[in-house]
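Morning, I've got a small favour to ask if you have a moment. I've dropped the whole record in just underneath, so have a look.
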Amino acid sequence: MQALQNLNLDSLLDTLVSVSAAFALGGLIGLERQWRQRTAGLRTNALVAVAAAVFVDMAQRLGGNEGAVHVAAYVVSGVGFLGAGAIMKEGANVIGLNTAATLWGSAAVGACAGADLLGEAIVAALFVLASNTLLRPVVNRINRRPVEEESSEATYAVHVVCDREQQADVQERLIELLEEASYPVRAVDQQPFGQNDAEIEATLYATAVVPEQLDAVMARLESTPGVVQAFWNASAQE
């Protein structure tokens, strides 16, 4: 009959208010996510907030404020694992970071509600919503802004296709010409190209180049015996 003895209408009403606030605020955060058709939407954010509120409220009833603090710390780490499951990597792109951060925010809202800090829970929910709505136009505007060439970084590589029998001489000549032009080589890779040729790829230390200078180096390389083709390209750094 311990369950009946623990039944306290005042405590139950307090829990009902805390969990209801967590449900409403978590649902509000999730509604914005659901509207944008994100992975973690209305139900997920509401559940995270409610669960965090229940755990913290239960710990506070059983162990006081100290117990609530300990459980809140576990809620933070537990939701961290939940958020990690929402993060996915597709090639060079990582998606789901904002979803994971929103779940973390919902847990914070729920923890505040469970600790009877309803004002703090409302403030936290408003700022989570503001982050996902008010900052979105700013982010989109920045992402559409073209990056200035002088402020961007790229990896530059020189490619030379040459006769396989003269590969060593061509590589030596390539490094020599690049160093003369003040573009030292960071790494050199070689691989077969067709039946009789080879391709030499030299990666430069430079993160910015003068195109005319590299074009001049390519022209000199193409006049080297055994060289079939020489060109350079740039790729954005990750």
